[in-house]
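Hi L.,

As promised, MarR family transcriptional regulator:
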Amino acid sequence: MTEDRVELALDLLATLDDESLPLSAVVDRIETVTTDPTLVRTVLDEAEVRGIIERDDGHVRMQRDGFVRFERDVVTREGDYDCRRCGASISTGHFVRLDTGELGPFGSSCVRKVLGRD
């Protein structure tokens, strides 16, 4: 289970649209997968080892050109959900399909934020 969460977070980082982000913004995205501080550090370290990111003085540069196509990779489902990013109650959940699994639910604005579209 722990390894699955690490891989899912790494997959998310590899698909971000942003070229560079403050470390805090990258941690915010990792925390949509896990809030365990040890796993967050593991994800950051492993992402650097695998060449997904490069850390420099509080900023993180993305080294991969992955992306998520909204029409294909983001699915919506109706139901009673809590957004994984902000915790708001939502009736339409947006789920991101990544190679290693599905991540969500997110609200419509949070899914864009998580993927680096806003």
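The mean pLDDT is 92.

Thanks again for sending the construct details.

K.
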